[in-house]
Write a structure and sequence with these properties.
The chain is α/β, with parallel strands linked by helices. It is 40% helix and 17% strand. It folds into 2 domains: 160 residues, 2-Layer Sandwich (Nucleotidyltransferase, domain 5), CATH 3.30.420; 168 residues, ATPase, nucleotide binding domain (Nucleotidyltransferase, domain 5), CATH 3.30.420. Helix 9 links the parallel strand 9 and strand 10. Helix 5 packs parallel to helix 7, helix 6 crosses helix 8 and helix 8 packs parallel to helix 9.
Length: 348
Amino acid sequence: MSFFENKERRLILAIETSCDETSVAVVEDEVKILSNIVASQIKSHRRFGGIVPEIASRHHVEEIIICIDEALEKAGVLPEELGGVAVTYGPGLVGALLIGLSAAKAFAWANHLPLIPVNHMAGHIYAARSVKELRFPLLALLVSGGHTELVYMKEEADYKIIGESRDDAAGEAYDKVGRVIGLSYPSGKEIDEMAHSGHDIFHFPRAMLKEGNFDFSFSGLKSAFVNTVHNAEQRGEELNSFNLAASFQASVVEVLVNKTICCAKNWPVKMIVVAGGVAANRGLRESLKKSMECELPEIELVIPLFDLCGDNAAMIGLAGFVEARKGNFAELDLNADPSLSFSDMKSE
């Protein structure tokens, strides 16, 4: 990477503002995370039961400069020591993305640094580099609030979507179900904890488990859950929330694991990566690990550290090194692409 030639160290500043976390990180030598500052907005959005885009954008404006200064200070790095600036340009909330992009472009221009555009979802995949160097070909199970996808990577930075959600993403379903049983936003972690204390007595539907079909659908599960709770309320019957959580999670996890295992059997892979916010789910981690030990013992399972499963800038820095190695740089007219997908990205 020629832009490091006049630098003593290979350092990238990374910025992530695709949704409701303002995050800035400094990454060195491909995988060494020197700092990863995350300013969460959960408390601001909790009373609304979900993300309010306008509020998210305003918080990013308030926090972005503070986070940049803090990331550099914690890493012990000066702007002139950096070799580039990596930034998320999609997918995500357009207003939120524009704040991060504006900050990244201003910082890059002021310090004569190249700008490195990063796909937010690619960042989630490359978060696994913090655990182990990726081996290709690999299969990535991406599970977050807005996306549920199976992505085949024949080689580095080559993305082929094998399956995706036709309606709700898994993380979105968790939040909607959480609201029904009275949990605060975001409810994924709490449902996961409750599930380990309950039993699958409701046997909710497992959609689209037909062999050879790698797409997902969670709207039917969500409807079944809501109808079960509302029907019980109309009868004056009180349902056990722990059993509801366990039954819901059992359905989601079985679908995710089954499709991932089947897909890995149909595509030549050396490694399976689980990424995105729902990758922190203990039930999913345990079930996939157990299934792979029985059915795919020759394939390695890699899951990012818990702190790198949610949205963060360190993962953007990890992916940024990959993009820079490809020579993928952007001009200062780079714009946000809220609906950016892997199909929009061309491998070199």
